[in-house]
Write a structure and sequence with these properties.
Oligomer: single chain
Structural class: alpha/beta
Helix content: 25-40%
Number of domains: 2
Strand order of the largest sheet: 1-2-3-4
Number of helices: 5
Radius of gyration: 18 Å
Largest sheet: 4 strands, parallel
Length: about 140
Amino acid sequence: MHATNYVAPPSRAPIVLSVYDLTFVRFPDLCTDDVLQYPTLVRRALARGAIVHATSDFVADEVRETFDLPPERVVRIYPGIVPSATGDAAAGRRIAGADRYVLAIGTIEPRKNLPMLVDAFDRVAATDPDVHLVVAGRVGG
C-alpha cells in the first residue's frame, strides 16, 4: 500500500509511506492542527514496518535521524514527470502571462516557505527578466 500523505491506514499489505518534509517536527508553529498529528501517524506506520519514500536526500536524512531508522528503511526517489501529450502549452502560457515561467503548485501556507521561493526567484529574475513566477493553490488552514 502506498500512503501518499503521511497517513497509512491499517493494512496487511506492506506499506510505503511518502514523506515530503518534516515541517511538523521542525516548525510546528507553522502547522495546522491536523498536520500536527503527522508525527504520531508516521510513528504508527513505522511500527507496522513501513518503508519511507523521501523525495530528496535532505528529507531522507532528516527522517532517518528523527525517527532513528536504519538506511534501508528510507528510500529517496526524486519526483519527476513524464511528457504529456494532452496538455495545452499555449493555454498555460496565456494563464501565466509569459512564455517562460516557474510554476509552484501547493497549498499557500507558512510551512511552504513561499518567501524563500520569492527570494530565490528574485535572483533568477534579476538576470532573466522574461521569466515569471506563478503560484497556484488554495489557501491553507
